[in-house]
Write a structure and sequence with these properties.
This protein is an alpha+beta fold. The protein has 9 helices and 17 strands.
């Protein structure tokens, strides 16, 4: 008699994305763990979960948390543009570049909004930015902030980032509030520091809120209490998270081969990455196409070839279930 390691009577494991409005004081890992507990099924091990871009404990706002199979697509958020609103105090600076650190220098602030507007323009477009020494960047296998907290020294190299827009929201000396739309890898603390240096003052971040990730607006965020009350209603289906990718629909035979990791020859198609689906059965036209994963189309010798990129573990069982029906 064949035995199964999973109780088939248990509910299907959740899969999707939660846009958590992260509370101040929580680490990103703490937020992930709390969300994972909500979606874990009693009788099974803790569901897999991860986030799509770290937020410091000081920060609030959008933390996309991937649940279940969606963890395979966290890179969508990690590699995407993001928007923030932040307030920095120009009268001092700290070793961590935020309010959690030790004050290293104080400044007299005698600048005008016109000075700020002029300076802000210098920080739009492609710039070189030095990440904070207190950051999660790895240095010789160890995180920079761990080295610093043990009394070591870290001097991280600059790296290119893109500031799409930087808008002055308010200035009530010494507090400056800005809104930034930036590329992946941008550190708001470094941006505030560099603006302060250009103005000849401090630039310590005291308030930081992420407004959007990958074009998802602030209105989609949910607080943790709201999430606890209705976890299923707050879970964005995975196909919607992949909305930025064009869709490629395969017929059943090709879908089965794709789900087993095989390359698929196509009669036509443009190069690039796609969200791959199995086309709905013509007898059930109202049914949603089954998401199988993602793939990349590249030219072959005679035809275009679909190369599987990230195949969902549920793809093959889902296709087999369709056949049985």
């Amino acid at each position: 008699m064949q035995q199964s390691s999973v109780d088939s009577s248990l509910p299907q494991e959740a899969s999707g994305v939660v846009f958590l409005d992260k509370p101040i004081g929580w680490t990103s890992r703490q937020a992930v763990n709390e969300v994972a507990r909500l979606y874990s099924v009693k009788g099974r091990k803790m569901i897999k979960a991860g986030h799509a871009g770290t937020l410091d404990p000081l920060a609030t706002g959008m933390l996309p948390i991937m649940v279940g199979e969606a963890t395979r697509f966290s890179g969508v958020g990690i590699n995407a543009d993001k928007s923030y609103r932040f307030t920095c105090d120009l009268s001092f600076q700290t070793d961590t570049l935020d309010a959690e650190g030790e004050v290293t220098e104080r400044f007299d602030v005698a600048i005008t909004p016109a000075d700020i507007e002029k300076t802000v323009k210098r920080f739009t477009g492609d710039i070189e930015q030095q990440p904070p020494s207190y950051s999660a960047i790895h240095v010789n296998g160890e995180r920079a902030h761990d080295i610093m907290r043990k009394g070591g020294e870290v001097e991280l190299p600059t790296r290119p980032v893109r500031i799409h827009s930087l808008k002055l929201i308010s200035f009530e000396s010494p507090l400056l509030t800005l809104e930034v739309h930036c590329s992946k890898g941008t550190y708001v603390r470094s941006l505030a520091r560099d603006i302060g240096l250009a103005l000849g003052v401090g630039g310590c971040v005291t308030v930081l809120r992420r407004l959007s990730t990958a074009g998802w607006p602030e209105v989609v965020m949910v607080g943790f209490d709201q999430l606890k009350a209705a976890p299923e209603a707050c879970l964005l289906p995975l196909p919607q998270w992949l909305r930025h990718l064009p869709r490629l629909k395969l017929q059943q035979a090709d879908a089965l081969r794709y789900a087993q990791g095989q390359r698929i020859q196509l009669s036509r198609g443009n190069e690039g990455e796609y969200a791959v689906f199995c086309a709905a059965d013509p007898s059930t036209p109202d049914a949603e196409p089954l998401l199988l994963g993602t793939g990349i189309i590249k030219p072959g010798i005679q035809r275009m070839i679909l190369h599987p990129l990230r195949v969902l573990p549920s793809a093959l069982p889902g296709l087999m279930a369709q056949q049985d029906n």
